[in-house]
Design brief:
The chain is mostly helical. The protein is about 75% helix and about 0% strand. The radius of gyration is 23 Å and the shape is globular. The relative contact order is 0.14. Its main location: membrane.
């Protein structure tokens, strides 16, 4: 069958499967259980055939998400065991992060003699981060106060989730100390991206200050290391569909599709607020800074899909860095802004924390004034720095913070029931926000190459300096 003819067939099969599943679920028609199941698998088989003709890794990731969800629904016992595929993929990706961040930052900073310019870029990036995350905070507060998703929660549902979290008390001193590494090997082993960033920045500044005969060999090594790690990423990403499918199968197999009513309301509130944030904040910023929106969306489709399915910002970081290079953001800006943004520009996590904190108060029947809400969510925003890529770290921080504000902890365990689904959305928005931040800073610095275009995200070439000069 021709490639073009499969498109309407896939769409029709999807509608048929959806209608049959709805009729069976709501008992609107006396259908054998095997009928909607067979319809769904026929749709998935046709979608897989379509994917083989497209030969797109991004599309295969989408297919694997559907297949994983179906396996989780039909064979939950088997699906829970498929988590090993996701764990293997995440382990492989985590081996990339530290050497990639270190190498690209060293080249980006030490490769340019003008350290003053690097400092200006860092200041601009931090200002942008704080402005955007503040917008995210207020949108989250507005959404939860509008929907009041936590009002009327039954405390009996809290005991349904047996999984427990360890509360972590964090003082201001702890937060500050957490930024700085005491042992770089320990930071790498523990996946402390912010500490690796700080070490790489100081190392690069020191390297830029030494004589050229000492600087050049280390720069050559760092350049070679970054290129090898990008190629390493390409190899690992071939395993992405299996890892993503395993993650979705595990999530659906463990949770199913029927969370508690209030938790579902909170989930809808979060997704609605995140969509509003994308449309009301990030899209106007992109248009204002003259970012090519269509090319930007095409470039980030794959890393955002990976982030959504695996709920790990780390899993999407290498591909996201490549994606921004592919649309004309210089590597030195990508290398500096994106890893830093993963600690200071957590748009989705900030919005989620503002929602969740007020949800806890609503569920407990405690009225909080706007001032009290602001103090609590600003505290959460501060304590969340540097937690990107750490599974459920935001939930642990939420539990610790509500305890410090004398709120009960049991509503947090209701959130835990749907945290995987919420984590998908907030992680995807974190990645989108950080990708946009690199493009904005590049435009702000006057180094965004408008006429640079690489049709494949795997194109790793640095925008040619003469091309960049002509573009400006």
């Amino acid at each position: 069958m021709k490639f073009s003819r499969l498109v309407p067939l896939v769409f029709v099969l999807f509608l048929v499967a959806a209608v049959l599943t709805a009729l069976s679920a709501y008992q609107l028609a006396a259908l054998p259980a095997a009928v909607p199941t067979a319809a769904r698998w026929l749709f998935l088989a046709t979608l897989a055939v379509y994917a083989t003709q497209r030969r797109s890794l991004t599309f295969w990731i989408v297919v694997s998400m559907f297949v994983g969800a179906e396996i989780g629904h039909d064979y939950p016992t088997v699906a829970v065991n498929l988590k090993v595929l996701s764990d293997v993929f995440l382990r492989l990706v985590k081996t990339i992060i530290a050497p990639l961040v270190f190498a690209t930052l060293v080249v980006g900073i030490a490769g340019h003699a003008n350290l003053k310019q690097v400092g200006k870029m860092g200041l601009k990036a931090l200002v942008y981060f704080e402005i955007i995350t503040t917008f995210a905070l207020f949108i989250g507060l507005a959404a939860i106060n509008l929907t009041k998703a936590g009002v009327g929660v039954s405390q009996s549902g809290a005991a349904a989730e047996a999984e427990k979290l360890q509360t972590v008390e964090q003082t201001t001193s702890d937060i500050i100390l957490h930024i700085f590494p005491e042992n770089i090997a320990k930071s790498i082993a523990e996946g402390q991206v912010l500490q690796v960033v700080i070490f790489a920045i100081i190392f690069a500044i020191g390297l830029a200050m030494v004589h050229d005969k000492h600087r050049r060999p280390m720069l050559t090594f760092a350049e070679s290391l970054s290129e090898v790690m990008f190629k390493f990423t390409n190899v690992v990403m071939f395993f992405a569909p299996l890892g993503v499918g395993g993650a979705l199968a595990y999530t659906v197999g463990k949770m199913g599709f029927a969370p508690l009513l209030n938790a579902f309301q909170l989930l809808l509130t979060l997704y609605g607020a995140l969509i509003a944030f994308l449309l009301l904040v990030l899209l106007p910023v992109a248009l204002l800074m003259r970012i090519p929106v269509k090319r930007f969306v095409q470039a980030i489709a794959e890393p955002v899909s990976i982030a959504f399915a695996t709920t790990s910002s780390e899993a999407a970081l290498p591909r996201a860095m490549e994606a921004m290079e592919s649309i004309g953001v210089p590597r030195r800006i990508v290398a500096f802004v994106m890893p830093t943004g993963y600690s200071f520009n957590l748009d989705g996590t900030t919005l989620y924390l503002s929602l969740a904190a007020v949800f806890v108060a609503q569920a407990a029947g405690i009225e909080l004034s706007l001032g009290q809400q602001l103090v609590m969510v600003f505290t959460l925003m501060l304590t969340s720095k540097g937690v990107a890529g750490v599974p459920r770290a935001s939930l642990v921080i939420l539990l610790a913070t509500v305890a410090s504000f004398n709120l009960p902890s049991w509503p947090v365990f209701i959130i835990l029931g749907i945290d995987a689904l919420m984590d998908m959305a907030r992680t995807a928005v974190n990645v989108i926000g950080n990708c946009l931040a690199t493009a904005v800073v590049a435009r702000w610095e006057g180094e965004f190459v408008d006429n640079y275009y690489a049709p494949e995200v795997t194109a790793l070439a640095e925008p040619d300096s003469e091309l960049a000069h002509q573009a400006h």
